[in-house]
Structures are given as structure tokens and as C-alpha cells.
Write a structure and sequence with these properties.
This protein has 264 residues and is of the alpha/beta class. It contains 9 helices and 6 strands, in the order ααααββββαβαβααα. It has helices at residues 3-9, 30-43, 58-70, 73-88, 152-157, 183-191, 219-229, 232-235, 242-261; strands spanning 95-104, 113-114, 122-130, 136-143, 172-176, 194-198. Strands 1, 2, 3, 4, 5 and 6 form a 6-stranded mixed β-sheet that branches. α2 (30-43) crosses α3 and α4 (73-88) runs parallel beside α9 (242-261). It is globular. The protein starts with a helix and ends with a helix. The model has no long low-confidence stretch (mean pLDDT 92).
């Protein structure tokens, strides 16, 4: 783990719990455990494979992972990254994008379902919200068979930072693909005063002329999904529990927020 990232996540770690018997083996250093967790996230390796690396014992790494999950460390790491990004650069609320991505879940578990694009094999879907530059702002997971537009309200509710209210001179736009082309989404957008830009399910017979004044906006959320897929542990879901899978995703989103937009 780079020194810059460790300096951001170390203050979030909870204090060492007291041993019930008052004596125990020396505790594995927090940084070693975090590096083991990051190795699992980045490579997708099994927890038991950590035994061959010598970084940390598998049971110690997983126990520390669950301990920090309960303490909300990974979600707080992502939230603090967004707050720092908003203070230094400013979240681009003007042009937001939402898109869903389906991944395989061979072991099944919570929030999985038959993937309609993969011969009904077990899969999961992650719905991601980004700002105009591709910074991840919200994330929810569901079964692969859940329609994208059904996850749109909960994706907005999952934001760890507060969205400012739209103003007449600072309208908030939301770019969506054809999966969101329905009246339910339009009514939801009117309720929250969002200007929706939805790709139609059936494109017009005569394509509209391209204008240099109108920039492509929705590609940033697809790029963020691509960044997430570089973390092999979330490219194919091996966690059966929803909370452990979300913890891996939150850690990946925190690294993307800090590394791609603040620490480079």
C-alpha cells in the first residue's frame, strides 16, 4: 500500500481490542493486515493463498477485515475521499451519470440472481453513480436480474455525502442509457428536479446531427466501472455475504477516489 493511502486510512482504524484473558500472541501489525486485504482485493486470490505470501496469516487478515467492516472503516475511507475531493476540486454535480454492470457470482449468496445475459447463471449487479469527472458518488448491489431503473433511487440514497439542492442557475443533469427509458424514471427525476438525458430505446430513423457544443458525458461512469474491474476480487464476486462484498467495493471506490483524483 502506498504511503499516501496508508496515511489516509490509518486514522480510521479502531483501537486494539482488549484480550479477554489478558495475554495473547503479538498482534499482527495493522498495516500488514491492510496490505493483505488489498492484495486479495487487487488480485482476486483466495484468503488461504495469503499463507504463501508471508504478509499475514489468512485467518488474521480475514478477522481484521471483518473487524474493520463492523467499524465502518472502508465506507468512511471512501466518504473522506469524497469530502477531500469536494474541498480541493469540487464535486461536479452539474453532470452526473448512472449505469449498472453485471458480474459473475459463482458461489451465490445474498443479492444475487440469474443473469439474463449469461444463460441465467448466478450473477450480481452493481449500480454506480458518478459526478461529471467519473468520481464515484453512490453504489448499491442487487441480483443480476433486477432492472437498472429499479436501482436508481437507492443508488442516489447511498451517497455518503449530501447532494446540494438544484438551483435555477445551477441545474443538475443526469445521463442515463436506454435501460432507464421509462416513465417511472422520468417521474422520479421531476420529483428531485433533475434534468434527465436518456438514450432512447428505439433511436430515431434519422439520427440527429452531432454538435461540437454538446460533449459526450455518460462515458465517465463506464470508465469508473472499468477501474473497478481492475480489482479482481469484485470483477468476479466470491463473497457470499452482501456486507463483505460491499466492503470490498467501498475499499475499491475509496482507492479510486484518492488515487485517481487526489494523490496523483
Amino acid at each position: 500500500m502506498p504511503e499516501e493511502l496508508w496515511a489516509k486510512i490509518e486514522p480510521l482504524l479502531p483501537p486494539r481490542p482488549a484480550h479477554p484473558l489478558g495475554c495473547h500472541n503479538p498482534r499482527v501489525p495493522d498495516r500488514s493486515a491492510m496490505e493483505a486485504i488489498l492484495l486479495v482485493l487487487r488480485t482476486g486470490m483466495q484468503w488461504q493463498a495469503l499463507k504463501a505470501t508471508g504478509i499475514c496469516h489468512p485467518s488474521s487478515a480475514y478477522r481484521r477485515f471483518r473487524e474493520w467492516l463492523r467499524a465502518g472503516v472502508f465506507h468512511a475511507f471512501w466518504r473522506l475521499g469524497l469530502e477531500a475531493y469536494d474541498a480541493l476540486v469540487g464535486i461536479d454535480w452539474q453532470w452526473m451519470s448512472v449505469d449498472g454492470a453485471m458480474t459473475k457470482a459463482p458461489l451465490g449468496g445474498e443479492q444475487v440472481g440469474p443473469n439474463p445475459t449469461d444463460r441465467a447463471k448466478t450473477g450480481t449487479k452493481r449500480s454506480l453513480l458518478t459526478d461529471g469527472r467519473g468520481v464515484p458518488l453512490g453504489l448499491v448491489v442487487a441480483g443480476a436480474n433486477v432492472n437498472d431503473h429499479k436501482l436508481l433511487p437507492s443508488t442516489f440514497d447511498s451517497m455518503p455525502v449530501k447532494r446540494p439542492s438544484p438551483e435555477p442557475r445551477s441545474a443538475q443533469h443526469l445521463c442515463l442509457d436506454a435501460a432507464y427509458d421509462c416513465n417511472e424514471v422520468r417521474r422520479w427525476g421531476d420529483k428531485f428536479r433533475l434534468r434527465l438525458h436518456i438514450r432512447p430505446r428505439r433511436p430515431p430513423a434519422k439520427p440527429p446531427k452531432k454538435s461540437r457544443r454538446k460533449k459526450a458525458r455518460r462515458w465517465v461512469v463506464e470508465r469508473s466501472h472499468s477501474w473497478m474491474n481492475r480489482f479482481r476480487r469484485v470483477l468476479i464476486r466470491w463473497e457470499k455475504r452482501e456486507d463483505t462484498y460491499l466492503a470490498m467495493l467501498h475499499l475499491a471506490l475509496g482507492i479510486i477516489t484518492w488515487f485517481h483524483f487526489l494523490l496523483r
